[in-house]
């Protein structure tokens, strides 16, 4: 492909198209969509059913399914996700948020707002953005009420900061999706992501 607008991340030269299985593959795909759209099963379960269906109907072989798995991503997630869960559950997140924000409480709402943003931006790189927001929201609402200021700016800061997962490939799902196909290194995300977070 000789287009400046498209970047090829994966070579599909080994792809084998089975014309006799095309209709079966389309039926399996539509089944996955229907299971999810009508809330019969969660999307993850539907996808697993679809993958099994593709193998059982011989649309793809087990070897092809195995070779299609990006094992670098599996090992990356297998090592990082438990770390994020451990950080979240052992109280480190609460200790960090409470100690940092409580210390800066005396400097007023603007400093506390900036600190809230920074703390959430750091947390969201190691734990999920939902978890970071859920943990920090009650903390800052309590601090805002203690200062007699509107907590809404703090909640907006949390929302934005939780969405700035730029510095690691595990900060957000799309980072992980492009990590291996794009040939990136872990440090590539940090080199670009940290200045980007600082700008935000």
Can you put this structure into words, describing what you see?
The chain is mostly helical. It has 2 domains: 19-69, no CATH class; 72-199, no CATH class. 68% of the residues lie in helices and 0% in strands. It is built from 10 helices and no strands. It has helices at 22-37, 43-56, 62-68, 71-89, 92-104, 109-123, 129-147, 152-162, 173-179, 186-199. The mean pLDDT is 80.
Radius of gyration: 22 Å
Q: Terminal Cα separation, in Å?
A: 36 Å
Any low-confidence stretches, pLDDT <50, length ≥5?
none
The general outline is elongated
Name the average pLDDT: 80
Largest sheet: none
Structural class: mainly alpha
Count of helical regions: 10
Quick structural overview:
This protein has 200 residues and is mostly helical. It is built from ten helices and no strands.
Question: Notable features of this structure?
Answer:
200 residues, mainly alpha, 2 domains, 10 helices, elongated
How are the elements arranged and paired?
Layout lengths: L21 H16 L5 H14 L5 H7 L2 H19 L2 H13 L4 H15 L5 H19 L4 H11 L10 H7 L6 H14 L1
């Amino acid at each position: 492909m000789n287009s400046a607008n498209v970047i090829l991340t994966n070579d599909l030269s080994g792809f084998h198209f089975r014309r006799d299985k095309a209709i079966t593959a389309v039926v399996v795909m539509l089944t996955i969509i229907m299971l999810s759209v009508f809330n019969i099963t969660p999307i993850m379960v539907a996808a697993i059913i679809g993958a099994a269906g593709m193998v059982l109907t011989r649309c793809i072989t087990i070897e092809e399914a195995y070779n299609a798995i990006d094992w670098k991503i599996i090992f990356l997630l297998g090592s990082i996700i438990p770390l994020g869960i451990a950080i979240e559950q052992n109280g480190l997140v609460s200790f960090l948020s409470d100690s940092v924000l409580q210390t800066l409480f005396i400097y007023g709402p603007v400093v506390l707002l900036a600190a809230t943003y920074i703390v959430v931006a750091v947390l969201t790189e190691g734990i999920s953005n939902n978890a970071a927001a859920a943990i920090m929201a009650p903390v800052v609402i309590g601090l805002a009420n203690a200062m007699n200021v509107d907590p809404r700016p703090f909640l907006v800061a949390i929302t934005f900061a939780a969405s700035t997962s730029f510095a690691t490939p595990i900060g957000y799902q799309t980072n992980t999706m492009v990590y291996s196909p794009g040939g990136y290194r872990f440090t590539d995300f940090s080199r670009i992501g940290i200045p980007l977070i600082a700008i935000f």
